[in-house]
Specification:
The chain has 632 residues and is an alpha+beta fold. The protein contains 18 helices and 22 strands. Helix 3 packs across helix 4, helix 9 crosses helix 15 and helix 16 packs parallel to helix 17.
Length: 632
């Protein structure tokens, strides 16, 4: 470099072997004797000064190190005190003011010293960029829920990061790098598949891509996906796999719920049509039974038989109501219940269901076990699970029902302070294999003999838990029993809503006119007879068309009782048409099936009576909606 050219013989330092060594050294170096310093050409290029400009250590410190001049002496002091080279990186300022990072190594030679200098600015910058990239990668991997791992099959070890260990349920404390410890966390049904997939990937030098379930730290099974690539190191077979593990639990659960929802929606549509027709039949039976029960001179034996028929109608209506819930999303309940209390009150019923050869044990340890879950629906859930357990213990056994309070579950971790109630129903029965477990909540799936099971019990249990914002899982091994675990979000409030159910009075009819609209002639006849028997004047309309003709002819009923689902027009549509001619006319809807969207609109429960209804239920609702005749 021309600007660094100088008469290098004018150095201010005596010639010496070390000076000659520095002058011929291929890298940057400086010779120090006393307070005199001499730079070779490479050193001049690093600092941007000529050797003649920096002939003393003071000049060197003031020009090159500026305000950090004391740091420069650390090289000298380290070499003097320890007697061997210790590289030190210092900031050097060139003539143009630009900083450079320079690594200094000091060598002693009697009263002389040699500094070897190496510009490490670019290397340090590259190292920092590499660290930054690694940090960004770690953040991205953690954000994506990924864990990184490397398997050495010959050594039977696995190098894994904290995310991988967490996903496999292993602690960072006293962590193991043994491959066997990781495989042990995989569920038995998936472990052999994983081992086979690993061996195949190594032998074929291909990729590994497998979904499996492993136990988390909390002991729950979680879905993971392993993806990796096989590597051979050199000619010696050092079989390795390098890859990542991804937590796919939420995706699996979403897939399961979407599939289940589609199945239940189809079932719900089918059930709705059947329920509507069946409830119409039950309505006729119930209405006629009540008429016959009022006949004079009815024998005691006939009365008992009528009561038996009425109980069968009630039971049939309950079964239809349960069937109608399948596939129909339920509105979140506001009923606050104490799960422990519900289970204790249900226990007596369970004893009759499971039989004397099955012992029931309650372990109700949950603290403040308040959840928003209908009491009747929770009882139905437990009864369904108990029935399933009874069938799995044909020669008797132990049925354990337990509750505990736990922190936020892995499946639903919203809110760090959210507590969850875990309800478990465990039996000592025959258990089930993986294939059965995978389908256990499917509607119509059953392992029972034809005619002995509908396959709807556990499907309805699944729906009830999901509607309540909960999670349900099943753990079972053939020959080792089955455990159903239900997690439900607790509420901190322990106050229960007051009972707002009002008892409706039934004032005597005073000749008011009620128009009954029904497309089923039998139901129309029975309903009209009920009203006439109570003192109402009744107009019968077989369908929406006749009802509109009645009003068009000038007749003005005080109230219209109409079916919801009919040909031509739905009940709400008919009511809207009639009210154009009779503003404010009260309307009571009746239906065996009125889910969301049927009839063109959602109907207020206060204006809807469900078939099959009793005479008393119908007359109370009619009386409640009719205006006071004295006010006309």
């Amino acid at each position: 470099m021309s600007d660094l050219s100088t008469d290098r013989s004018a150095t201010g330092a005596e010639a010496s072997p070390l000076r000659a060594l520095v002058e011929g050294f291929p890298g940057a170096a400086a010779h120090i004797k006393g307070e005199v310093i001499w730079l070779n050409r490479m050193a001049e290029e690093i600092v941007g000064y000529r050797a003649s400009e920096l002939t003393t250590l003071d000049a060197w410190g003031n020009a090159v190190h500026r305000q950090v001049e004391p740091q420069a002496k650390t090289v000298y002091l380290a070499a003097r005190s320890e007697g061997f080279p210790r590289p030190v990186v210092l900031t050097v300022y060139r003539r143009d003011g630009s900083p450079r990072l320079v690594e200094f190594s000091a060598y002693l030679g009697g009263d002389e010293e040699v500094w070897i200098m190496r510009d490490v600015t670019d290397a340090r910058r590259a190292e920092q960029e590499l660290r930054d990239r690694e940090q960004r990668l770690q953040v991205a991997v953690a954000t994506a829920g990924l864990g990184i791992w490397e398997m050495d099959l010959n050594a039977a070890t696995i190098a894994s990061d904290s995310s991988t260990r967490r996903l496999f349920g292993l602690s960072d404390h006293g962590r193991s790098n043994l491959l066997a410890d990781h495989l042990e966390r995989v569920l038995p049904d998936d472990r052999s598949r994983l081992e086979e997939a690993i061996n195949t990937a190594v032998e074929n030098q291909s990729t590994l891509d497998i979904e499996l379930q492993a136990r988390s730290v909390q002991g729950r099974a979680r879905w993971l996906r392993l993806h990796g690539t096989a590597v051979l190191d050199g000619e010696t077979p050092q079989a390795r796999l390098i890859g990542a593990v991804h937590d796919i639990e939420s995706y699996k659960r979403m897939d399961e719920r979407l599939l289940h929802a589609a199945q239940m929606e189809s079932l719900g549509n089918l059930a709705g049509g059947v329920a509507h027709d069946f409830n119409n039949l039950l309505a006729v039976i119930r209405g006629q039974v009540e008429f016959v029960a009022r006949e004079p001179n009815l024998s005691e034996k006939a009365a008992v038989r009528l009561q038996s028929i009425e109980r069968a109608v009630t039971k049939g209506a309950e079964m239809v109501a349960s069937l109608m819930q399948l596939g129909q999303p339920q509105a979140p309940t506001t009923e606050l219940i104490d799960v422990n209390e519900v289970l204790e009150s249900t226990a007596a019923s369970l004893e009759r269901i499971v039989g004397e050869d099955v012992k029931i044990e309650l372990q109700l340890r949950a603290v403040a076990p308040f959840v928003k879950f209908g009491e009747g629906r929770l009882s139905a859930v437990v009864i369904n699970l108990a029935t399933n357990a009874r069938d799995a213990m044909p020669v008797g056994g132990l049925l354990t029902i337990a509750t505990t309070t736990t922190p936020a579950t892995e499946q639903a971790p919203d809110g760090a302070d959210q507590q969850w109630l875990r309800l478990t129903v465990e039996d000592t029965g025959i258990g089930m294999d993986a294939e059965t477990r995978a389908r256990i909540f499917e509607p119509f799936f059953t392992t029972k003999a034809p005619g002995l099971g509908t396959g709807l019990g556990l499907a309805s249990v699944y729906d009830a838990v999901i509607d309540a914002g909960g999670v349900i899982e099943v753990d079972s091994v053939p020959g080792q029993g089955t455990t159903f675990s239900i997690d439900l979000p607790c509420t901190r409030s322990t106050s229960r809503p007051a009972d707002t159910t009002a008892t409706l009075n039934q004032p005597a009819a005073q000749g008011q006119v009620v128009m009954v609209v029904e497309d089923d002639a039998t139901i129309l006849e029975v309903t009209a007879d009920i009203l006439r028997g109570a003192g109402y004047r009744v107009i019968e309309a077989l369908g929406p068309g006749q009802a509109q003709e009645v009003v068009a002819s000038g007749q003005r009923p005080d109230l219209t009782l109409t079916d919801v689902v009919m040909p031509e027009l739905s009940g709400p549509q008919l009511a809207a048409n009639l009210r154009r001619q009779i503003p404010g006319m009260p309307v009571l809807y009746m239906s065996g099936y009125a889910p969301e969207g049927r009839g063109g609109t959602q109907i207020d429960e206060a204006l809807l009576i469900h078939k099959p209804f009793s005479h008393q239920q119908l007359l109370e609702r009619i009386a409640h909606l009719l205006p006071d005749p004295t006010s006309r």
